[in-house]
Amino acid sequence: MKTRTKLLIALIFISIIQLTFPLFFIAAKERVLETGKEYLFRIQPVDPYDFFQGRYVSLNVPSLTYTTDNPDEFKRFDIVYAEFEQDSLGAKITHLSHTKTEHSLKLKLYAKPNNKMRIRLPFRRFFMEEYKAKTVEHKLSRSASDKNYVHVKILNGDFVMTDISSNGKSLITGKPVKSTVLLQ
Amino acid sequence: MNLKDFLEDCREEKIIDQPTVDRMYAHFLARDKQRSLNAQKQSQLNENRQNNGLIIAVSIIGVLLIGFGIIYLFAHNWDNLSRSTKTLLSLLPVFVSVIVNTYTVVKKKDNVIWQESAAIFSFLATGSMLALILQIYQLPGIENYFFSYWCVLCLPVVYLLKSHSAVFCAMILMLLNLTSNPMDQSALYKIPWFGSLIMFSTLIPYFKRLFTLRQPDTLYMLHQLFVPLLICFSAVVSVSGSESSVWLILFLILANFHLFGSSIFLRTKDRTPTIMAILGYVGVSLSLTYLLFKENWRFETILQVETHDYRLIFIPILFGLGIFQVVRYFSKEKISTQNLYKLLILIPIPFLVMDYSGINAFPAYQITLLIVACLAVHFAQNNKDQWQIYPALGLITVIILSLPFTVGSSLNFFLFSLIPTIYYLIPISLVEEKNKNTLTAGHIIILCFQFLLLLIASFEGFWIAVKTLHQTLSTFQLSLITIICVGIILNVIKMRKQLLNHVNGMLALFSLLVPVLIWIGCMSSIGIEHLYSILLLIIGIVILIFSAKKSNLTVANLALGLIGLVMVCRFFDLKMSLTVKGILFILIGSSFFFANYLILKSRKHENKN
What pTM does this model have? Predict the structure, then answer.
């Protein structure tokens, strides 16, 4: 075989990988979007910039607390799975364990485990259009009493953020959100 | 006599006959023509190559700009589009880059411009594609191995397109990859530095080729600098742990690079050090002296490991590699004074062991380093090897500087005054015979430092400040200073011929006088600061007379400047009436004009003769 043919075959192979690699990524995330369960977490935002990925709203999600009787089960920097329950003040952790369940989220324990653990959530950035990000930030920071949420779909430890809403209205599309939990 | 005349002469002397003359001359003409043609071709080729380089550079910059433009365009969001459209759009640049790559491989196989541009475009397209897809699903790149994916997807381009600029892109991505901080790092393969290491190892075939062929020249030089810097920087960024363990890892990496840079594989034919060897040598010296400024090394904490701390694997690996390289080097070369310093990698080990087991290794380390540096200077003087003299001098300087750093004693100023002295007295063996009456720029800088020291010493207030430092040196530190002084004296005895030869020994005498005078100043209880001003004035006048004799205007004005400087300093210091000070200044000012006038006049006089 000539070197050029060899090179060409290698190139085609690499190109296929380059083009299909993101598809796996996309497939996994699409599955979460399709079958994941939606939870709403309260937020307090600011708005910075990422060189590669553009403008985003930094979501200041307050840590959740989890009360347990036996904190010795967990170690610091452990990877754990949390199950949630929705109420009108945002999602709450109902169960924390080392085993994955259908609607659990993968988390890292940054604080030292004790009876009342503070748990940091991995929702930090919400990317959006340059000008929209500024108005969203403005709308969100206007009043502290507003009910601001980030909508997250959760499946098998993985998650996808879908929306940001303020007082039942999506800040991305401007339409009222479908979720019924919020409007109680 | 040209060839034709010579041949004619030969024919007349009946050495050769006419046909031979004709044939020889024809052959000579043909050869001459061919030679000139070849030279022309060569120069054209060189010109082409230069032009090519420019075009390559410009096209690379162009592609970079276009690529960044694409990233910027897409880095804006586009919320109105559906998710599938967004995904398709983000894949578009990769499609284009695949087409460009295929075209390059099929049609422009040997065109460097196409290869480099296609490679860079491929990098940027893949990067923008990944950034966009992560953005669509609201995933921050730093938590999601963004740089790892990017680098892995593009690495094959280095070999497929034989691109050199892609290597730089990949190296930058590997470094950026270390900044990513994914949530789950429980397994080795999930840790960013491990990914970077694996990615770097895929570049090894490229570097092996580059370092064996040593072509292209610029890249060969650049990568000797870039690779060690990249690795050291990565080590600093990614090693978590105590300061001492970071120090040890850096030291071992640099020592390894020095050994590799001077190994049989890389070294030049005339044995001048390669860039990598110099970088390694400087780095090793710096890291050795770093320990001098810390009395508590705390190497006993080196084994205290947190979970997922892998640096302890690297220390033995790097150490073993270093030992292997030393053994390999000395299996082919005889041990001589020129390459003995390669054993440098072994110097810290006994001290580290001592510190680890709780013994205070600091004094032993100081004295060993000093003696090693002195021996290195001694041998390097015999070999006239400036690549060893100056690093060893640097080591001695840092040892001298580290003493005042820990103890505030009145002898500190004396220690400072030793530094310019050693920089003159020790490299004197490098001064060549023909330069024995000239001063190099280095000598003038040394001289300026010495004048500055004397000038500082001539202030009364300075000595009051110095005498308030009450800490006393321990006997050990005093003996260190004694070793340095004895070393300087031995050096003067050893090099006495060269020292007396260079500028009639004036500079050597002055270099010795300055520390001695400052030492007297440090020790004496009565203030002798006026002595320094008087000395400076005398030196100024001596130089002035000397330069007037040689009618050298620059030196004369420098000497006058020195005298003026001393006077200005005294203006703030001495309690004289303003009238006297005024008269003094007028005298100095007019002496400038007078001296210049005299010199110019004597010059004219000489010219007439």
Answer: 0.74
